[in-house]
Write a structure and sequence with these properties.
Cytochrome Bc1 Complex, Chain D, domain 2; mainly alpha; globular; 5 helices; binds heme C; single chain
Amino acid sequence: MRQILLLSLAVASPLAVGAPPAVDPAMLELADRSRCLTCHDVDETVRGPAWRDVAKRYRGKPEVEEALVTKVYEGGGGVWGNDYMSANKRAGLDNIRVLVRWILSLP
Ligand code: HEC
């Protein structure tokens, strides 16, 4: 239920016209609550890769979604460098799925 609500928020929130690609505030808030933003930013590489770079890397490969959800949940490394993403189990699989879907859809 919560996931559906969040998804509809993501779709319904108005994108600023003419501005640089807007970032959905509801998604940012969820990422913040899920503790992703200690290591990630949408536009800049922090400890983890910039989420727009993640979107670029997997553009046109929707089949990676489930593997990414599992990786964020359980932690993992070896794709972007030598660093390792620790597990994010407290964020919960449903939230992580919503976030990964959003990340992959970033322009
Ligand atoms: C402790 C720091 C840390 C936290 C917290 C963190 N990440 Fe990461 N994340 C990383 C690092 C480091 C990588 C690069 C891993 C690699 O090279 O495979 C990464 C990679 C990723 C990737 C790309 C994975 C791939 O295989 O290409 C996604 C998507 C991602 N993170 C999403 C999230 C989300 C969503 C959250 C919050 C629930 C989160 N991360 C929390 C450090 C973190």
